[in-house]
Amino acid sequence: MKNFIEEVTWRGMLHDVMPGTEEHLMEQMRVAYVGIDPTADSLHIGHLVGVMLLKHFQLAGHKPLALVGGATGMIGDPSGKSNERNLLDEATLRHNQEAIKGQLSRFLDFTSDAANAAELVNNYDWMKNFSFLEFIRDVGKHITVNYMMAKDSVKKRLSSEAAEGMSFTEFTYQLVQGYDFLHLYRDKACTLQMGGSDQWGNITTGTELVRRIASGKAYALTCPLITKADGTKFGKSEGGNIWLDAARTSPYKFYQYWLNTSDIDAEKYIKIFTFLSKEEIEDLTVKHREAPHLRLLQKRLAEEITVMVHSAADLENAIKASGILFGNSNAEDLKQLDAATFLEVFDGVPQAEIAKSDLENGIEIITVLNDKTGFFKSNGEARRALTANSISVNREKVKEDLVLSNNDLINDQFVLLQSGKKNYFVVRVV
Fold it and tell me: Which of 5, 28, 230, 428 could share a disulfide with 22, CB 3.0–4.6 Å?
């Protein structure tokens, strides 16, 4: 057995751990689970800490369980929230479960014959036939209301600061999650639940149920909630969540998110979101501090995690796309970008539309620069820029005699105009 606790401790992934957990894990192969919210058909990077915990657990020789909270997803976890979440029907939950399993498979080994192969479980499977009367008789009577009220997640929702009260449905959440732990303890010999630090109360309710109902010993471990040094929320961009699904967040935007990490955050994140060794990370950190302008930590972090979530080919495309704004690309590089990535690279750049029929006979470049787009205020200004050799079309310098045609289109719909090094204009052909 590798020492799992030691590993997650130096990586900054340990917030709280129940006494005796380390010794328990070093005795033999153990089983642990992390609960995953199935309210979307993709994980986002906020889920990744839990996934990395499971991966490190598996690498240490133990068996990880990923629990999709189909039943708890129908209730809503009050932890850290001021309102109830939207509840989902079973068909949606099943669809989300399959999509999530596909993403988890990039991290966890579900298919090998190894004793510690990962498993995906859904608490809806054991909760759906559990009647309300059975639940309050067999589970509810073992946990007092006083015990449940003492939990921070409940206290916050019942405080005078909370905008709304707390429904009975949400109040019972910790019992349902606690029962999950008891069920997995009995059914899968699972003795450890892991989660974010806001889950400590729910997890320890599970350890109490294992103790009181099964006369067993179970353990709890939480990781810190990931924060950003500037105080903004981790995992969010201006467009919302950073998703693992390429259709929701493109590999380019995904790569850019990590590349734009601050120095302080990069030193923290590279330990949490990569599997690089301690020595490698320490060496990289020293080099980064000597020349922070090279952004070595950010680049390595972005590379490692983009390949892990997407692929090496997606990383290569993201790097090419990222290089386009900095002058080290050509027309061929532009033409390799798909339309969505092209628009993301030039997000915020002024745009104008021209009719495709106009290009069939060709349009003089001066007309494009002034009349058709307004990139320049007058033909004279456009002509002076062309004479000064400061105008590029699709990254190639052009002269005043250029006639723009369909052959100049990127993805059959765009032309990129550029004046000097930093002034861009996108022509969209419709």
Answer: 5
